[in-house]
Design goal:
By secondary structure, this protein is of the alpha/beta class. The protein folds into 2 domains: 5-35 and 145-287, Rossmann fold; 42-138, Rossmann fold, CATH 3.40.50. It has 9 helices and 10 strands. The chain has a 6-stranded mixed sheet with strand order 1-2-10-7-8-9, sandwiched between helices. Helix 7 links the parallel strand 7 and strand 8 (195-201). Helix 1 (42-56) crosses helix 2 (72-84), helix 2 (72-84) runs parallel beside helix 3 and helix 5 packs across helix 7 (178-190). It is globular and about 55 Å long.
Length: 294
């Protein structure tokens, strides 16, 4: 029995593709991160960043926290901050889906919307300014080692355990890059031959949760040596695959999960044999007010 909602973070199931993958010699497994209590993979990082920060003293119970987010990290931080009794302001572009904004507010966070034309970079600049001028403390998912360490401690070990060490390829969208950094670090320690595949958008494609960062905004936690291959996916491919995942596999997820699944299936077609694990980072109900499933 779980004593706290926090005990339900992690240990998400692996589900095998039964329709989309047509290579009988390759097993494609989707890691269902929407099963976390906050609905996404970001619960892992948010919990570790806040818990570890409080334990270390780098975060204090009286701090006014602030974070720029494109959505899922904000929801996770709102939930975790609320449980710990912390004040948090979340900053996101005004074109973020209504569900995300309402969910953060339901968990008790203050939500500030910045102009959509300056994107997540503009939200990050706004948060940095409040830190410099108003004494806010940034959780800073882009530079906080507790982000990737959450996946080193949980996501990687779960994949290794649940595949009985047979995983050959790990596919993940790259946003803050915490998921791919931490999971790669663990899996490579177990077997250096496991291939780590990062997913980025093609030029001019806008896929929430997947970024090709300008150099000055590149997450400080990112280490290119931990990614064996980077494959690009278009916005149209990611949208189409999100729809196919729901319709054909019963996996209801967002566009970044569709992007990762596109690359995972591309890999499955190329390989003679293998076990691919692809992250399904959240649930599709985050996107119902957008045109994703129209």
């Amino acid at each position: 029995m779980s004593n706290s909602i926090l005990d339900l973070i992690g240990n998400t199931p692996l589900v095998e593709s039964k329709v989309l993958n047509t290579n009988p010699n390759v097993k494609l497994l989707f890691k269902m991160e929407g099963h976390n209590p906050g609905g996404s993979v970001k619960d892992r990082a948010a919990y570790n960043m806040i818990k570890s920060g409080l334990e270390r003293g780098s975060l204090k119970p009286t701090d006014k926290l602030i974070e720029a987010t494109s959505g899922n990290t904000g929801i996770a931080l709102a939930m975790i901050a609320g449980i710990f009794g912390l004040d948090i302001e979340l900053v996101m572009p005004e074109n973020s889906t209504k569900e995300r904004v309402q969910t953060m507010r339901a968990y008790g966070a203050k939500v500030t919307l910045t102009p959509s034309d300056i994107g997540i970079e503009g939200a990050r600049d706004y948060a940095e300014n409040k830190v410099e001028k108003e004494g806010f403390v940034m959780v800073n998912q882009f530079a906080n080692d507790d982000n990737w360490k959450a996946h080193y401690m949980t996501t990687g070990p779960e994949i290794w355990r649940d595949t009985q060490g047979t995983v050959t390829h790990f596919v993940s969208a790259m946003g803050t890059t915490g998921t791919i950094m931490g999971t790669s670090t663990f899996l490579k320690e177990k077997n250096k031959d496991i291939q780590i595949v990062g997913v980025q958008p093609t030029d001019n494609s806008k896929i929430p949760g997947i970024r090709k960062w300008p150099k000055e905004y590149l997450p400080k936690i990112f280490d290119a040596s931990k990614v064996d291959t980077v494959m690009e996916v278009s916005e149209a491919e990611a949208v189409e695959m999100a729809k196919r995942l729901a319709k054909e596999e019963g996996i209801f997820s967002g566009m970044s999960s569709g992007g990762a699944a596109t690359v995972a299936l591309r890999l499955a077609e190329q390989l003679e044999s293998g076990v691919i694990v692809s992250i399904v980072c959240d649930r599709g109900d985050r996107y119902l007010s957008s045109d994703l499933f129209d």
